[in-house]
Structures
1.
Amino acid sequence: MNSKDQNMQTAPFVELLAVPQAQAKNPLFDIIIEGKINIQNYCNALIAKILELRPSELPEFINYQFNLVKKPEIWLNKFEKLLANNSEQFQAIRNHSKFIKLYTLIEKKRTELQSSRVKETAAKTPKRLINAESEERYFSFSEVKKHIATLTNYPDKILYLNEEICEYKQSEVYFINNKLLDYKKQCKALMKQIQNEKILKCQLEKEKAEEKIKIASEKKPTLKIRLNGPINILTDAYKQMMNNVKPNGKPYIEYKIKEIAKFICDNYLDENGNELSIHTIQTYLSPTRTDKNPNNDWKIKL
């Protein structure tokens, strides 16, 4: 079946190694995609490639893709997931045998990879830093911390630790280093630490965002009232409230001329929508400058 005829169910591949036909170094085993390369097109092309190959070519195809990707074990896991998601494509007798053979090849390759990984890392990791060992692998929290330090994505860290915990639970451990803490407990503790750090980071980001909103709102210009007439009508009203003494012996507004002048400039505009001059307003507010008072017909009587 051609991938163009039907969209397959996808698997979450991390590496989408595909090329156009013109750039294929090995047209028989390369994943060929003309145009945009995305997860759907990659899965379609991968299933189509499997269905096109002869059973005898499948081992070499697996080896070719295995050596091409940077993280072969992850690719194998996603490839296995893709096969499971699209098992109905292999219902024909010929394709069903391919299906079984592919699963056998995947398991064989996975075993080879795990075996080589144990042999390779066993020489690098001192025995004193190994928490436990099983038939398939060993568990070292020291290595876990180093690997976590290389990951920048929060979900990847949590997923990796969760997989390690699950794998440890399911393994038949035959050696435990009593000088080190329990591997599972250490992984759980590190997971909780990462989760707490994530919560704290989110809280700090939220507080920063709220602070930015607060600063922005404080910087937002206040409403200024536009006067539809001479400025001295307004200043005379304030002058009356500042200078006319009430029965209690105090004026209605008890502030200095500079303070009232600043308040008026901060809250009013002239009839043309322009800012007011604080020097002019101070002059109008001066009790000695009666020549700046409006005519009685325009005066606001309080």
2.
Amino acid sequence: MYIIKMNEIELPVTYPTREAAVEEVHRMFGETEFDTGGANIIFWPSVSARGNTKIEIAKGGA
């Protein structure tokens, strides 16, 4: 199982494969480095004071 974290906060959904998690990120943000490489962490531009959103795909969940 895989999970998606945004700024260290785990989303309440698990995905059976990394590819399924990448597809969900793709639906939310469009094409990212997850689509073109093996990265598990990317930073996405944000209007927040932090400047970027940290997006991570990790093994985890139930």
3.
Amino acid sequence: MSEKVKEMLRLVDMLPETEQALISEMIKRVVLAWDPDFTKVTESERDRMKAAQTELENGEYATHEDVWSFLE
């Protein structure tokens, strides 16, 4: 979590619950305006997906059989 987000959370936490609810709705509206169908990814999500793709391409994964043999 970034320092900006932590600071925002500290500030919101100081507000009364009714104001916190208002801020929550505003954040939801901003997120929906930014990505209405939730298809965009953050930079960290993009990095994790690239790393996972590289692992998959390098054969660094467990097969279904691997999992079941481990459990036996």
